[in-house]
């Protein structure tokens, strides 16, 4: 059992015990007793905490995986932004046509923008998949701009950039199941 799961189970057990103890206190008093209202309010408060905690269990269990995805996404996009900057510099160093900047500058700008995306619980796996797929795009960009492969692959590179960009601009706000 993972550390996170163990912590969640321990906290859940603590909250359940508190609710049980509060219930026992309520049952000790008669409904007409002033202490009954005090103990009942404590029971309701403890129960509210338990319900709120139970509501957050899926997010708590998914958090370690989300953090891993966040690291992968962040460093992938940062690395690809560095590759984009290096390719732009190589255009000038290798005295290639400045027209390559039409392809490389948007790639660089897109990867820099991707560095700042949020990785939430619902879409962390999609973001991770997009970030890993981005490495293919960067490789293709490097091979094309360094004239290792034919310039006809520019269309493919633009297509890949659009696919990579669509994973960054995912605006689906509908409810999704949280995956572990």
Instruction: Give the total of beta strands.
Output: 0
Number of helices in the DSSP assignment: 5
What radius of gyration results from the CA coordinates?
27 Å
* Net shape: rod-shaped
Secondary-structure element order, N to C = HHHHH
User: What kind of oligomer do you see?
Assistant: single chain
Distance between the termini: 13 Å
Spans with pLDDT under 50 lasting ≥5 residues?
A: none
- State which percent range the strand residues make up: under 5%
Overall pLDDT score = 81
Helix content: over 70%
The largest sheet, given as strand count, sense and whether it forms a barrel, is: none
SS class? mainly alpha
Domains, number: 1
What does this structure look like?
With 180 residues, the chain is an all-alpha fold. The chain has one domain (3-168). The protein is 76% helix and 0% strand. It is rod-shaped, with a radius of gyration of 27 Å. The chain crosses the membrane at residues 75-93, 129-154. Keywords: Membrane, Transmembrane, Transmembrane helix.
SSE layout:
Elements: H1 3-27, H2 34-93, H3 101-114, H4 124-145, H5 154-168
Helix pairs in contact: 1-2, 2-3, 2-4, 3-5, 4-5
Keywords:
180 residues; mainly alpha; 5 helices; transmembrane; transmembrane helix; membrane
Write a brief caption for the model:
This protein is mainly α and 180 residues long. The protein is built from 5 helices and no strands.
